[in-house]
């Protein structure tokens, strides 16, 4: 599929990578609009096709007292508000079959979380909405295995599937990105590199996932050099106080410099 098929997408013919970016979770309307406005300023300046990302709920949490959301319908309405305010497409992740049709009423792209990408009923439900389906590669899966997830989407009558690599488990408490997987997965579908989740340090004894945000540019540069179609970056104006994944998110104040560098690298790579 071509990016231009996504409603309200801008700069789809710029020959840049596309960007999925926003906070990990929707914490409220003001924060979502504030983050979206700043990202749109930067992506318009750099002519990067952009989709606003925000989870309407967080189902995969380390502890029962971890933040899970502000309410499904409330968060989904905020995603719609972002879309209508800035004329920008949106993406959110779903966790149950019933989430697919519900979220599809509000967003343009449905994301299947990495831990759930082998759940056939969930993938098929997302595909049958007709929305773009972003399939996150399981931390436990090979790049080659993702062709089967893509095929489930296609066999459900939907040709609009993406794959997102979010790292592979390395021992108990670390993730690695195997960049050999990018050209492999690009054979099956457009491929995105999830920069920030790839830097998570899960399974901490505190029950709060850690991360290495200092390595964001390192991983992102390597993805661009290896021809990823898109980048996924979670960002917040106050990561230390974000309600989810603050330890590995990019501080919003660093986004413009990061993306400027990545666009420059992309131009060099495309000229070779």
Can you walk through the features of this model?
- The protein is α/β, with parallel strands linked by helices.
- The protein has a single domain (3-271), classed as Alpha-Beta Barrel (TIM Barrel), CATH 3.20.20.70.
- The chain contains 8 helices and 13 strands.
- The chain has helices spanning 29-46, 72-86, 97-104, 120-127, 146-155, 181-186, 216-225, 255-271, and strands at residues 18-22, 50-53, 90-93, 109-112, 132-136, 161-165, 168-169, 175-176, 191-194, 200-201, 210-211, 230-236, 250-251.
- Strands 1-2-3-4-5-6-9-12 form an 8-stranded parallel β-barrel, surrounded by 6 helices. Strands 7-8 form a two-stranded antiparallel sheet. Strands 10-11 form a two-stranded antiparallel ribbon.
- Strand 1, helix 1 (29-46) and strand 2 form a beta-alpha-beta unit.
- The two termini are 25 Å apart.
- The model has no long low-confidence stretch (mean pLDDT 93).
Low-confidence sequence ranges: none
CATH topology: TIM Barrel
Structural class designation: alpha/beta
Major sheet details? 8 strands, parallel, barrel
Strand content: 15-25%
The number of domains: 1
Question: Could you give the topology of this structure?
Answer:
Layout: E1 18-22, H1 29-46, E2 50-53, H2 72-86, E3 90-93, H3 97-104, E4 109-112, H4 120-127, E5 132-136, H5 146-155, E6 161-165, E7 168-169, E8 175-176, H6 181-186, E9 191-194, E10 200-201, E11 210-211, H7 216-225, E12 230-236, E13 250-251, H8 255-271
Helix pairs in contact: 1-2, 1-8, 3-4, 4-5, 7-8
